[in-house]
DNA sequence: CGGAATCCGGGATGATACTG
DNA sequence: CAGTATCATCCCGGATTCCG
């Protein structure tokens, strides 16, 4: 696993905090900007925009603009991103299964003499 | 996917750049500090130490000290971390498979008028 | 509604030096 | 060999403002 290699960069990019949130939130179908903003507690508008742009640039998201008033923009996962989402779910499931274990390990580590 | 929730934090922690590198490097068996330093190009000694401590604290790594001269310290994955490593391999494999796709998507995005 | 642009503070990170 | 300590820096991301 060499830093600087493309795979490393790609893993970093898609494993980012907000990227994961967006991929999960958009997994169930097209979702609007404001819906994402509400679904992802704590994200700033700026980071939402930037992360969406990066994911779109990487071919993970399709951005569809409906020229209505008010404007309506929907984001949906590409097939490639759906594969990624499935893989991410494995990690998330793992994290849920071991949440208590990690908490316990931390406590033991922190209370060591 | 709510930021602030424990699962989110855990995914963030284990999905970190150096954490992934260390987990991969240690997957094939116990590995020494200096071996990690050489295996992970670009990591500073400081970040290696900090990331190792965090992974150990979270119960992902076991640190074994052999009281020899010079000192010998080996790090190995816990069963929990081995499960995580398997899941990470899925992501890494995905990244390798789609490396070219992402590069092409970026080029198209950047050269758009 | 869905952004873009700007400013700016702090935590993450690197560099360097020292040590049991 | 396997770290720790300290300082300096840098850039990530929040806050704010403005816009079609």
UniProtKB/TrEMBL annotation, chains A, B:
<dbReference type="GO" id="GO:0003677">
    <property type="term" value="F:DNA binding"/>
</dbReference>
<dbReference type="InterPro" id="IPR002577">
    <property type="entry name" value="HTH_HxlR"/>
</dbReference>
<dbReference type="Pfam" id="PF01638">
    <property type="entry name" value="HxlR"/>
</dbReference>
<dbReference type="InterPro" id="IPR036390">
    <property type="entry name" value="WH_DNA-bd_sf"/>
</dbReference>
<keyword id="KW-0804">Transcription</keyword>
<keyword id="KW-0805">Transcription regulation</keyword>
<protein>
    <submittedName>
        <fullName>Helix-turn-helix transcriptional regulator</fullName>
    </submittedName>
</protein>
<keyword id="KW-0238">DNA-binding</keyword>
<dbReference type="InterPro" id="IPR036388">
    <property type="entry name" value="WH-like_DNA-bd_sf"/>
</dbReference>
<feature type="domain" description="HTH hxlR-type">
    <location>
        <begin position="5"/>
        <end position="103"/>
    </location>
</feature>
């Amino acid at each position: 696993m060499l830093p600087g290699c493309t795979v490393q960069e790609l893993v970093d990019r898609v494993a980012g905090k907000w990227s994961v949130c967006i991929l999960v939130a958009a997994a169930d179908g097209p979702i609007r900007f404001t819906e994402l903003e509400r679904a992802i507690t704590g994200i700033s508008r700026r980071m939402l925009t930037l992360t969406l742009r990066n994911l779109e640039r990487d071919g993970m998201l399709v951005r569809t603009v409906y020229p209505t008033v008010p404007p309506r923009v929907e984001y949906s996962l590409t097939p490639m991103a759906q594969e990624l989402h499935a893989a991410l779910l494995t990690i998330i499931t793992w994290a849920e299964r071991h949440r208590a274990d990690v908490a316990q390990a931390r406590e033991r580590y922190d209370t060591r003499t």
